[in-house]
Every structure is written in C-alpha cells, then in structure tokens.
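Aim 2 progress update. The chain analyzed this quarter is reproduced below.
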Amino acid sequence: MDGADPYWTQYTIVDAIAHLPFLQDFWLLLSSNMGSPHLRLDQLRGLTKISVHGMCKNYCSKLLSRLAKAIAQSPHITHLEIDLDGLNWGFG
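Predicted structure tokens:
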C-alpha cells in the first residue's frame, strides 16, 4: 500500500485491520516515496503495542492526530515507539 493507492483502497485495508478481533500489536513503516496516505489509524482500538517508523513529510500532523486517537482508544498500551522524520518518541 502506498500513497498512490486510491483513498478507498487504503480505507478498506485499515478498516479490515481495525476489525481483527485479537489485534494488539500494530507496526507501520512509511516509505520516503509515499504520497499522502489516508490511513485511518483512529479506527484502531485496544492495542498494547504501537510502532510507527519512516518519513511523513507533508502529512505528519494529520498522521499524528489520527495516531493520538488510536493511543487514546488503547487504555492498556504498554509500548509506544514513534520514529518519524528522524524524531523519536517512545516508552515501554
């Protein structure tokens, strides 16, 4: 999946992932040649581990806003690792 994929493709994939009943770990790698993705990370709930790595150039604020919602909907999170455009955050 890359930024060149139509919106509906990206939405369908994330929607399918969000409906996995036992999903606890989520790992995302963004490539530097990716266009602006329409990843609805805010649909993810109940995660215990989240890792996001890569380059997000012009869409970091939108991505982080949706990621923040996923974190808020995951009260039992024990591990968070974010490395975007060389900026690192994490715990766990």
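The chain is about 25% helix and 25% strand. The longest helix spans residues 60-72. These observations will guide the mutagenesis experiments scheduled for the next reporting period.
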